């Protein structure tokens, strides 16, 4: 199928919201740790990151969690250890209200250290298992650096499934798929943000939106080459972007946009649908991977900006915990 063609549309109920219609063709994932929002919109999975963990820990549904954190800190545990415990405690609560997977992020400051990322990922899984949550419920999030993808390759062989995040170009996607990653999260909105700033274009028709086009291209490439890695569009700026990717394997969506889709009873068109093919291609080398990020200004800029942002959120969470310890 030509990537510009609209896929054949399956029959969807027209008397339901666009959110319910979307759930019929795509696995809907909540991009939040907010228990009430998750209960309201009933996604299959949910995903978190350091900033979402900080917000979640301050919600009513997690009352008492910061008090526990204070106790952990005063007993001599390091801030990094307490961040991991907080992250797992929030994730554990989320496994109680979604039937599928919870994505949990490895510290972005380890994005260029394969061995350290491996150790942290295994530690997170061990914490989950101590709390009674098996690794079959958890996806470990790793940044789409060369080191992160190589760590994912090892973890997948150990039965620890990975979500490769901060993904902005085809080379990152192919390298992750060739490493056997369970899932990739190409970022739609951040790509669009970059092009708006770079070109001065403030509004793109949705079918010309660079972020939407990127995910569509990855989707068609993966299906034509028979890669089993799941594609989960992420980082949406509008419901229109979400709708433009209806039919994608999974989409992770903020509560605000879930609400907009739930309130809209219009007809949803399925935009992505393709049978698996059998084309083959040579493995992406480290040199090709690194050059692709140097050659593609958007992908390089957004990857490193995203790592800085998640690292800053982790530092911010650490400062909040340091204040909690002294309170």
> For the report, how would you describe the main beta sheet?
8 strands, parallel, barrel
Radius of gyration: 19 Å
Annotation field: number of helices: 14
Mean of residue pLDDT values: 92
| First-to-last CA distance | 60 Å
Number of strands: 8
**Shape type:** globular
**Which H/E pattern describes the elements?**
HEHEHHHEHEHEHEHHEHEHHH
Characterise this structure.
- The chain has 327 residues and is of the alpha/beta class.
- Helix content is 51%, strand content 11%.
- It has a single domain, classed as TIM Barrel (Alpha-Beta Barrel), CATH 3.20.20.
- Strands 1-2-3-4-5-6-7-8 form an 8-stranded parallel barrel, surrounded by 8 helices.
- The longest helix is centred in the C-terminal third of the chain and has 30 residues, at 297-326.
